[in-house]
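[Automated response] Your request has been received and processed.

Submitted sequence:
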Amino acid sequence: MNILKEFSINDKCSYLDDLEQTMHYKIIDNCSEHKCEDFIERGFRRFGKMYFRPICNECNECKSIKIDVKNFNFSKSQRRVMKKAQNIKSIIQKPSLTKDHIELFEKYHLYMKDHKGWEYTPTSAQGYYNSFVSGANEFGYEVLYFDGNKLIGVDLIDILPNGISSIYFYYDPDYKKYALGKLSMYLQIKFAKEANKEWIYMGYYVKDCPSLSYKSHYEPYLTLEGRPGEYEELIWS
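Generated structure:
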């Protein structure tokens, strides 16, 4: 593992209006799966070679959250979502970059801009590569969802020794009747159960942020206390 750069940035909060945030970044080359999992367990997220977490002094609303896979039981409604999507096929492979990826990524974010007020910035092939292809090493994967030959969803994940870290999911809004966001999470949990993994790392739960508050629906779950340092004890409760 080689830490290329380490720094912090103060900026407008990504999750709560009228607040500022301080994010701590590490740019790491050749991170191992065990070290990646250690970072995730300590509240970091990974985009490409960049690992980051909030270190805001006066706010602790961003809670790292993970699903307890072994004690998760699918409800009837969750099973119906999976059954309804039986005609959708999926494949798992190393992260890739195609014209279809970029077009779907753009379509999804333009939809979210219009329907949920997300800020929108056009992405480039290089920007996508840096965020979702670079830094995958031996543990980063993508799950591609297809209707026939049409790409309709991309789920970026890390498969780690004890769990799966959900990085990012985007989909074709024309297929929202299939609840693809929920479907992708249910299939992650199903895969984790079959692979005897303990956790699904979902990133941050923020109670008052609609884009993140849904994560508390996946019970049972645990949240990380504080921002433990490299050698400090981890307390998930």
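Summary generated for your ticket: Residues 2-61 form one domain. Residues 13 and 52 are 14 Å apart (CA to CA).
If you did not submit this request, please reply to this message.
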